């Protein structure tokens, strides 16, 4: 018989007792109670070797799969996330995350805290964080702060991998420039970048810069039109920001949609000052590095590994070394690795062992209710190999373009699979062995979809 999770406030007092016991133990875990079994029998027994897995769900706005009806989250233990007899209903029982549209969520490395910056609307740009208490219970902690005066009410932001201390939000605005005879000169791209103290809810630093390409590129109408996904290098002295290039026709200054795709580019800034911007270019990958909803670049083994999108030769995973330059000897092409054409990385996340789970589509993807949809693959960054995870079912209506989160617990990565408006499951991939576990059932509602785990 399936077990349906409901509000677990009933267990609050038991959790407090567990916390007090833990604080007196020589194995102190910092005062955070471990997840309880949550099975509804009232015993509240702690589960060994587990962590919270927070499922995120995006409700339909006007069209199936648009996710514009708001975001709900629901937390279960990792043990229950692996149990196919468990059923999770975030749309009926979940915590509503403040956001006018799909919330931009991040999680602490241990899964005990959720960070959110509201996207658009009256609360757009508001930063809040929540302690994960299980089920629909998320307790707001610290103070709320608005970053909208710096980066707008629909900011693109990410949590840096510095021990859950810092977040970074960015924006770019553009303006065409002309000479006295109305001849097109270039497009000015002005970047704003902010760092946010996640622990104390305060602004660390904010800087604006003009981001220039080469004189030849700008004369031909190229400019940086979107930026996203900041990541720190291993030394902690440089911040990399992914970029998308667009182009105008220099003869007319009208948008050009049929043009040569240039080498992938990344903006490099000094950190923490956010000064001295420069742009580096890959000769291996072409296309954009800003990603979309999910983190697009990760630090592993001293280098930053970055996905690109819109590459005419299929998405690559690119490598930026400790010298803050692209390593053009590292040529990891997803078309070649997967044996497909037109691979497009939608989202990805590596574990600490350098093996990653990657969401992608390709030219052979079927058209579903919300567009051409995708698959999951297991990737090895060092061996430069990728293999489709066939144990996770493919459905034309399985929407991955808005996918945001992959919960990582050791070598295991948790993902959600459910077609738009249909039920599905959590799947757990052991990146070391390749084993795949079909876990808890996800209960969906009409037109809505799941956007990951945290």
Question: What's this entry about, in short?
Answer:
By secondary structure, the chain is mainly β.
Itemize the secondary structure elements and their pairings.
Blueprint: E1 3-4, H1 12-23, E2 52-58, E3 71-77, H2 78-81, E4 86-88, H3 90-93, E5 95-97, E6 104-107, E7 113-117, E8 126-134, E9 137-146, H4 148-151, E10 156-159, E11 166-178, E12 184-197, E13 202-210, H5 215-219, E14 222-232, E15 238-247, E16 263-270, E17 278-286, E18 297-300, E19 303-307, E20 316-320, E21 332-333, H6 334-338, E22 344-350, E23 355-361, E24 367-368, E25 371-372, E26 375-380, E27 385-388, E28 407-409, E29 412-417, E30 424-430, E31 436-442, E32 449-453
Which features does this protein show?
single chain; 454 residues; mainly beta; Methylamine Dehydrogenase, Chain H; six-stranded mixed beta sheet; 7% helix
Fold and architecture overview:
- The protein is mostly beta strands and 454 residues long.
- The protein has one domain (49-453): Methylamine Dehydrogenase, Chain H.
- Helices cover 7% and strands 44% of the residues.
- It has a six-stranded mixed beta sheet, with no helix packed on it. The protein has a four-stranded antiparallel beta sheet with strand order 5-3-2-32. The protein has a four-stranded antiparallel beta sheet with strand order 6-7-8-9, with no helix packed on it.
- A hairpin with a 2-residue loop joins strand 28 (407-409) and strand 29 (412-417).
Structural Rg: 22 Å
What number is the mean pLDDT?
90
Can you count the helices?
6
- CATH homology superfamily: YVTN repeat-like/Quinoprotein amine dehydrogenase
CATH architecture: 7 Propeller
* Largest sheet geometry: 6 strands, mixed
Overall structural domain count: 1
Helix content: under 10%
User: CATH topology, what is it called?
Assistant: Methylamine Dehydrogenase, Chain H
Keywords: Signal
Protein name: DUF4374 domain-containing protein
């Amino acid at each position: 018989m399936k077990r349906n999770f409901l509000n677990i406030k009933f267990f609050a007092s038991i959790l407090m007792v567990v916390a007090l016991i833990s604080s007196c133990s020589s194995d102190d875990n910092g005062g955070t109670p471990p997840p309880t079994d949550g099975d509804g029998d009232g015993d509240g027994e702690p589960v060994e070797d587990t962590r919270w897995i927070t499922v995120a769900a995006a409700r339909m706005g006007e069209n199936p799969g648009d996710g514009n009806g708001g975001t709900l989250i629901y937390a279960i233990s990792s043990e229950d996330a692996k149990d196919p007899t468990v059923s999770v209903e975030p749309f009926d029982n979940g915590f509503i995350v403040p956001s006018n549209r799909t919330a931009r969520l991040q999680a602490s490395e241990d899964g005990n805290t959720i960070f959110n910056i509201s996207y658009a609307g009256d609360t757009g740009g508001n930063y809040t964080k929540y302690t994960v208490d299980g089920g629909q219970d998320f307790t707001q902690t610290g103070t709320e702060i608005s970053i909208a005066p710096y980066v707008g009410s629909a900011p693109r932001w990410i949590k840096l991998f510095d021990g859950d201390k810092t977040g970074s939000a960015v924006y770019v605005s553009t303006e065409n420039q002309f000479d006295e005879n109305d001849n097109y000169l270039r497009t000015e791209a002005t970047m704003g970048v902010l760092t946010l103290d996640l622990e104390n809810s305060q602004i660390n630093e904010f800087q604006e810069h003009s981001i220039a390409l080469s004189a030849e590129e700008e004369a031909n109408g190229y400019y940086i039109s979107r930026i996203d996904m900041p990541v720190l290098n291993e030394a902690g002295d440089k911040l990399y920001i992914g970029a998308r290039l667009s182009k105008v026709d220099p003869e007319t200054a009208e948008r050009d949609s049929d043009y040569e795709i240039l080498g992938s580019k990344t903006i490099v800034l000094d950190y923490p000052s956010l000064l001295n911007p420069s742009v580096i270019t890959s000769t291996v990958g072409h296309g954009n590095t800003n990603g979309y909803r999910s983190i697009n670049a990760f630090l592993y083994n001293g280098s930053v590994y970055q996905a690109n999108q819109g590459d005419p030769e299929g998405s690559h995973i690119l490598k930026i070394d400790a010298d803050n330059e692209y390593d053009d000897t590292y040529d990891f092409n997803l078309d070649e690795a997967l044996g497909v054409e037109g691979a497009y990385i939608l989202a990805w996340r590596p574990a600490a062992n350098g093996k990653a789970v990657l969401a992608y589509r390709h030219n052979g993807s079927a058209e579903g209710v919300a567009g051409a949809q995708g698959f999951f693959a297991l990737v090895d960054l060092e061996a430069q190999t990728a293999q489709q995870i066939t144990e996770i079912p493919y459905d034309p209506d399985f929407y991955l373009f808005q996918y945001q989160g992959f919960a990582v617990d050791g070598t295991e990565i948790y993902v959600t699979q459910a077609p738009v408006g249909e039920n599905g499951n959590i799947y757990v991939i052991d990146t070391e062995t390749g084993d795949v576990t079909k876990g808890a059932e996800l209960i969906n509602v009409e037109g809505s979809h799941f956007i990951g785990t945290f």
